[in-house]
Structures are given as structure tokens and as C-alpha cells.
Amino acid sequence: MKKEWWKESVIYQIYPRSFMDSNGDGIGDLQGIISRLDYLKELGIDVVWLSPVYKSPNDDNGYDISDYQRIMSEFGTMEDWEELLDQMHKRGIKLIMDLVVNHSSDEHIWFAEARKSKDNPYRDYYIWREGQNGEEPNNWGSNFGGSAWELDKNTGEYYLHLFSKKQPDLNWENPKLRNEIYDMMTWWLEKGIDGFRMDVINFISKVDGLPNDKPKPGKKFASGSKYYRNRPRIHEYLQEMNEKALSNYDVMTVGEMPGVTPELARQYTGEDRNELNMVFQFEHVSLDNGPNGKWDFKPLDLRDLKTNLTKWQNELDEVGWNSLYFNNHDQPRSVSRFGNDSKYREKSAKMLATVLHMMKGTPYIYQGEEIGMTNVRFESIDDYKDIETLNFYKEALNDGWSKQEALESIYAKGRDNARTPMQWDSSEHGGFTEGTPWIKVNPNYKNINAAQALKDPDSVFYYYKKLIELRKQYDIIVYGKYNLILEDHPEVYVYTRSLGEQTLLILCNFYDGTPEVDIPAGFLESEHTVLIGNYEGLQGSGKISLRPYEAQVLLFK
Ligand code: NOJ
């Protein structure tokens, strides 16, 4: 397999609104990020993925962009951004920008023009249809609830919005629009950025005719996703984007792709395909969804996780590349979700990090994950800010859920779990701001914060730092072949990686029990070293007895 810098890198995601506020307005900003770059350097990450910092009315916290070439004023200026890039590069950290081009904001000049009249030159930058018998053009639902269509009273037609009505979908069928996007990308590439993370990029090609989909029983709106995910012209568009913008630069690309399969991922990321470097997929973070989707949550069955991650490891082996993550700005905190955020918080945070960072793929760390930040439980819905969460709450109450039931789903799955401010120290608001934070800080900041983690050599932070160092030291962690063992064991995740003469054995206990693990004969008798673990040494010989949330990585050569 071809060696590439982006396969050997560890990426750190910054959600700028919640990372660090430098000017006391309660909103994180670019100068705030600059002030924390030494912290990231200490952690050892290679690349920062910066969630959107462009001009935006913030209906969806920057994922609704009204000018792709300007910086959101709350975050600072273009000079601040240039300083950020420069300061990152001085520290050897690369920067990838979020590219949100499935949709723009309705406040983008293109849309302001488009809605003026049916013959406006920008009309065709968006997707317009006439209503059907006084109703929406089709029955697709928005990913944020309700219909995916909004009637524009002025022109009497509906426009498509797969997310909020302030996020109209761009019409990729239009070559003029596509070229504007490639030019805009080139403009950023010329500024020296190191790549793009592409928001729902596999949604950009819609099936001709936008057919109706079948709704779930009792529901008015259907998903529609089978008509807009991975659809006909997607590969053509990505290849064109690659040719016209990306191929001239040594940059990395990662495509956020809900609904992508390993087979499709091989097409999106295959070396000879000239599309993207890696996908960012969602199957493993959907395994705790019930039949009615994400809010209908159920506990994770570890065997499902093993089957799923193994499928991705095997099916992309040698012929594609994947992202490795449990956390991002759309997911609840993994230590609360898949680990134990009370007694074993640190142990389980380290275990989850181990299981992921020892796999093949590029690991992503989401701000705060490296100190084991947890989910939050705000008592009142008024403390929640996320549009998806607030829409869900309204709909759930309409559908007869009690307030408490709806809140329980939000506690388990809401995106604001990941968006409470970064906990820097034990001072007021966790050291995030001197003002009033735009969303409340998790009340546990007095115990869980970066300052405290930096003081403790045994902290989650230093464990992540070591995982990152190991990836740089051992090719086997990047390129070794994956093999699952103890497939049916309900409590432990055990796998190997192998490259040349070397083998890595990764042992992870996902629960607070003390399961005995039967390691295949011959293994432990041979010479080995422990590369990393969250307990001292191994317990037992032949049969190993794992302690609660134990993780160990053994190297045999
Ligand atoms: C995916 C992003 O990660 C999410 O935060 C956003 O709401 C949607 N795409 C729409 O842009």
C-alpha cells in the first residue's frame, strides 16, 4: 500500500464556537485557538480540522454559509485566520478547512438573487420545483425534521433544503455553480491550506425527477435519502473537483458520507480513482439507534460494533482508506456513550482510544476527547441550542412524548453534548471565556479540565499523546493488516495487526467486569513488549484476566 502523510497523521477537530474565547463575548474565536496551539503541539497531533469559520447567520452554527470567502465576525477577521494558519504551520501542524457545499445559507448572495425571480441568473444555483396539488413537490423530510421543501411566496415555487430551511441545497447539475465552487476552493488552496473536510459531500447529486419515497407507518414525510445519497453523478462531480481544484496541491480530503458502504467507499477513495483520500462514515455510530432512528436509543451490543468495524477494516484493506472516530461535533461524548463516565471515566476513555487508534485508518480526536469530557444533562430545554435538538423536542412533544422522555433522548444522543465549551481549567466557565458562554459549560469542569490533565502524568491526555507517538514510531500501526479474534466474546474486543515479522495484539475490555480471555496458543509464550496499556502489566498467563475497562497493546516480533 502506498505510503501517504495523511495515512500517518492524527487529526484534531476544533469546533471553534466552543473551543476558546479570547475577547469575552462568550463565543470561541480564532485568537482563542491561536492561544491554545501550544497545547495541541504538546498533544502531538498533525492536522487540525476546523469546523466552519465562514460568514454565517448561524442557523446551524456555521454549517449555513453566507459567504465562503469571509470570516464570521464573531470569530475574528481574515487577518486572524491568516495568523492562525501561519502559527499552525510554524508548529508543524496542518490545517484542513470545512467545505460545506451541498447547501449554502439562504442569506448567501446567490440565494438572495435566486429568489428574486424565476429568470434570475442565479435561480438555477438552487433546486426549485412547483408544488403538487397544493402540497410540497415530493414527500422528502428534512434531516432536521419537517418537510425538505419550503415555499418561496414571491415566486410561488418551492426550494429543496435537506437540512434547515435556511440551508437551501445547491444545484450541482449546473456547471456554472460547480465552477464557482472549484474557484472558491482554489482560492483557499492558494492561501496555503492543507485540505478539506467535505460536509455531506455524497448528497450533492440527486436522482432525476426527485421521486417520492415511502414514509414509515404513521409518518407524513419519508427519508428520501435513497434518492440523494451516493447518486448517479457523484463520482463525476468528485473527479471533476479533483481535476479542477485539488489535484494541483498536496492536500488531504475527507468526505463526510452518511449512508456510504464499504463498496462505495472503495470507489470514493481508491488510489486510481482521483476522488477523495478517505471517507468519514456513520455505521458504527448508528449501532445504538433503535428502529425509529437516533433518538430512539438502545444500548450498544459490543458484538455489533466488532462486526461492523471489522467489516470496514477488511473491506477497505489495501483498496481504500477510512477515518477512525467515536466523537465529533454531531455525536454524544464516547466516554458516556460507550464507556463509563463515572467510576471508570479515565480507564474507559483510554480503552476507547486504544481500540480506535490501533486500527487501520486515520484517527480523529474531537476537542475535549483527549481529557475525557463527558455528556451533559441540562435540566431545562432552554439550555439547549442545537437546531436539530430543538426541532426534535418540539416534534416529540407533538407526537405525545413526555418532556422527560424527550430530554432523556437528548441526554443520550443530542449534539450539544459535544458542543459545551472546552474545559481548560477549574476557573469560572472552565476557563473558556471571561464572559457568559453561548452555551453552558458542563458543571463537571472543576474535576475534568485540561490544566488538571496536564499536571497528571497518568491522565487521559498523556495516554492520547503516547498513542500518537506510537503511530509515528511503528509502521505496523498505520499499515499492518487487521484480524479480529474472539469474535463472539460479548465483553472484550481483541484483534491483531500484522506487518512483516511483527504482530500487535490489542486487548480491550468494554465493561466493568473481569472477563477471562483465552489468547490463542503460542502467543504469550513468545517474546513481547507492552507498547501501551491503562493498567500496569498483564494479569494472568495463558488465560488473561482483564480488569474493568482494561486495554493493552502487545508487540511481538
Ligand atoms: C453535517 C455536519 O457535520 C452537521 O453539523 C451539519 O448540521 C450538517 N452536515 C449540515 O451541514
Topology, please?
Blueprint: E1 11-14, H1 30-35, H2 37-43, E2 47-50, E3 54-55, E4 67-71, H3 78-90, E5 94-99, H4 109-114, E6 128-129, E7 149-152, E8 157-160, H5 175-190, E9 195-198, H6 234-244, E10 252-256, H7 262-269, E11 278-280, E12 289-290, E13 293-297, H8 302-316, E14 323-324, H9 334-337, H10 345-357, E15 362-366, H11 387-398, H12 403-413, H13 416-419, H14 450-455, H15 460-473, H16 475-479, E16 481-485, E17 492-499, E18 502-509, E19 516-518, E20 528-533, E21 543-545, E22 551-556
Parallel strand pairs: 1-2, 1-15, 2-5, 5-9, 9-10, 10-11, 14-15
Antiparallel strand pairs: 3-4, 6-8, 7-8, 12-13, 16-17, 17-18, 18-22, 19-21, 20-22
Helix pairs in contact: 7-8, 10-15, 11-12
The structure holds 1-deoxynojirimycin.
Structure, explained:
By secondary structure, this protein is of the alpha/beta class. The chain has helices at residues 30-35, 37-43, 78-90, 109-114, 175-190, 234-244, 262-269, 302-316, 334-337, 345-357, 387-398, 403-413, 416-419, 450-455, 460-473, 475-479; strands at residues 11-14, 47-50, 54-55, 67-71, 94-99, 128-129, 149-152, 157-160, 195-198, 252-256, 278-280, 289-290, 293-297, 323-324, 362-366, 481-485, 492-499, 502-509, 516-518, 528-533, 543-545, 551-556. The protein contains 16 helices and 22 strands. Helix content is 27%, strand content 17%. The strands form six sheets. Strands 11-10-9-5-2-1-15-14 form an eight-stranded parallel sheet. It folds into two domains: 11-103 and 176-205 and 241-466, Glycosidases (TIM Barrel), CATH 3.20.20.80; 478-556, Immunoglobulin-like. The longest helix has 16 residues, at 175-190. The model has no long low-confidence stretch (mean pLDDT 97). Strand 16 and strand 17 (492-499) form a beta hairpin. It binds 1-deoxynojirimycin. 1-deoxynojirimycin binds next to loops. 1-deoxynojirimycin (NOJ) is lined by residues 60, 63, 100, 163, 199-200, 256, 329-330. InterPro entries: GH, GH13_cat_dom, Glyco_hydro_b, O16G_dom_2.
